[in-house]
Amino acid sequence: MRDTSELSAALRALLAMVMVGSSVAAASLLTEYPVFTGQAARYAVAAVLLWAFTRARGRRMPSLTRRDAGWVVAVALFGLSGFNYVLIEATARVDPSVVGAVLGSTPIALAILGPLQERRPVAVRTVGCAVAVTAGVVLVERASGPLDPVGLVLALLVLVGEVGFALFAVPPLRRIGPVGVSFHATWIGAAQLALAAVVFERGELRPPTLPEAAALAHMAVFVTFIAFVAWYGAIARLGADRAGLFVGLVAVTALATSALVGTATITPATVAGCVVVAVAVAAGATRRPADARPPELIAPGREAGGP
Hints:
Order of helices and strands: HHHHHHHHHHHH
Number of helices: 12
Structural class: mainly alpha
Distance between the termini: 29 Å
Helix content: over 70%
Oligomer: single chain
Number of strands: 0
Strand content: under 5%
Low-confidence stretches: none
Radius of gyration: 18 Å
Shape: globular
């Protein structure tokens, strides 16, 4: 690390991906609950928490300019509502491990597209580490089952949503910060998913059971409110390319939490995959490549959103 801000950013990325990985266990409690309804509620609660967090700090939530609005709507459409929809469709056609393996290539995509978006050189070191992270994720996921062509296309669309969730946020991060992007993306995503719930789940609406409510609360507080702000704060300091390496830790955390609840088994191969991911993330994120200038997408003091 070159300075404490980079160390802080790396810890934010780590926190965000651990929170996202923990959602696997929470999601296992929601298999019988209407998906769009549940996700709409999750994002709506997170939006309220983000607004309250900003007000409690004596700040105003930054408003969206017309240009920012386009980017944030894209974040919500591709990274939130669209991501949830294609993820459901993909896992209905292929084994979730296949989808996880495809998602494991997210670091490679961000290592290449992130610098191109910011008009700086692609760092060979970061790309190499991203390839290693992806290889480790494939070992962790142990993809199996029939490879349905439509399911594979849907899995690729899940990947597009994950990449878009990071890259579409970069331009507005410069002006409204991580909390601002997170707030506006979550309320817009909640509105989009609520509309989908009315259209597709109108006959399935019901109050959640206690375990379902607990799972939705976990996803709203930890996987959205905390993880989104931490993730966008990391991107703002490290850039999408180096922050993207941490996406590989989702598979590691998901394996650990699934093993704890008894839905997954840890094997020598998965342990090896976890080690590869950890080493590659550390190698790529702890030292800035010589051919990549620091992005510093937001000015100091903008992290919490609002002036």
